[in-house]
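Hi U.,

Before I forget, here's the chain from the pilot set. I'm dumping it here mostly so it's searchable later in email.
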Amino acid sequence: MNQVILNLAVNAAHTIRDKIRDGEKGLITITTRNLGDKAEISVADTGMGIPESVQTRVSILFSLPRKCKGTGHGLALAYAVIVKKHGGKIWFETKVGQGTVFFLQLPLWAPLVPVSESVVVNEESFRLMGSRATAPLTCSVRSDY
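Structure:
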């Protein structure tokens, strides 16, 4: 699960990097919600958004073998973990030029441990986590637990 969220955050940083100009910052927001019998995690960015020509093909990324690298979203891993392993759902909403939100919805079979109230992820943190992201960004985490 950690790898899924990290992949989405790193890819969000990449799309922000592609959009921003010198001196600007992008924003990645990770949010959790308790929906009663389900938990929802969303990873939102203020990046480029997913072009319409690619949106219809995103589902193909869900079925790529895990050995495929550089697919952009780590969606093959996300699908395997969220849908196949945990019986959840994954989908996205996007606005070209404004950003994308990926939603992960998981059934609650056991109580969840609350997520910390805030986490700051900066350029150095992404480098330490193995990302090549170079965009300055702010990351916030919100939870209603």
